Amino acid sequence: MSSVLRVQNVTFVRGGRRILKGIDWEVKSGQHWCVLGPNGCGKTSLISLITGYEPATSGDIQIGEDQFGNSDWREVRKRVGLVTNTLTTFIEPGEPVINVIASGREAKLNLWQDPPAAWQRQAATLLKATGSQHLRKSLWGTLSQGEKQKVLICRALMAKFNVLILDEPCAGLDPVAREHFLNWMAEISSWPEAPSLVMVTHHVEEILPCLTHVLMLKDGNIHAEGTKDEVLTSAALSEIYGAPVSLTAKNGRYALMVL
Ligand SMILES: Nc1ncnc2c1ncn2[C@@H]1O[C@H](COP(=O)(O)OP(=O)(O)OP(=O)(O)O)[C@@H](O)[C@H]1O
């Protein structure tokens, strides 16, 4: 299996604090990962480094054959799809929804001008495919949290990505919208040319059967990584959260109880 994403001995220091302390992680084609860890352990920071929004303090990050520093990172970034709430704060409230989606094509946040007609058509098609065509003429600032999430999903689909990173993608979604979103995710994973999915979440209920591997972070370090069956245990979850928890599995889905 070829390497889709490789993170080697990566550290991230900000404000004099070592936020990531030497991360080694590899995602291979055909694998889909879940990233788990308590608040503040460094999940979003790791994602920011992989997507090129922040530079690592040391270490190497490779997407496919291309390495940060040795390749044009603007080109590399186009192969990483990102759905994150952090993005929502950078998008201008007056940006038309179609432009927000089309901006995914160039991995830019605000276009400041209308995108080419072909991109607008692609954006409208994606919006329709997610059942959100009624948002076509809306402005970003007027959308609900769930609507913003759907628009960001469409944005990620504009690019030909090798890896699709979903940072707490279900945050703010109602239970039914969440299940629909997870089904959509499972559908993406079944595409013949599916990108590798990397989903950051706090909720084991969102770990679908299509997610094959788990990365557990604690205090800027890797606590465990490997296949879901190896890593996802009550003992490991109790260790990262620093409290006893009990994990149960039923029909390929999980539930967690804090004891
Ligand atoms: N630019 C920065 N300067 C200083 N501290 C930072 C910076 N970015 C992140 N941090 C700190 O690093 C730690 C890790 O933050 P990060 O957002 O990566 O955690 P997280 O695991 O995603 O947390 P959560 O689950 O709460 O979203 C936090 O304590 C945060 O305050």
Automatic annotation (TrEMBL):
CDD domains on file: ABC_cobalt_CbiO_domain1
Top-level division of the source organism's lineage: Bacteria
InterPro entries membership: AAA+_ATPase, ABC_transporter-like_ATP-bd, ABC_transporter-like_CS, ABC_transpr_CbiO/EcfA_su, Metal_Ion_Import_ABC, P-loop_NTPase
Entry keyword Cell cycle: no
UniProt GO cellular component terms: membrane
PANTHER family recorded: METAL TRANSPORT SYSTEM ATP-BINDING PROTEIN TM_0124-RELATED
Protein name, UniProt field: Iron complex transport system ATP-binding protein
Organism: Prosthecobacter debontii
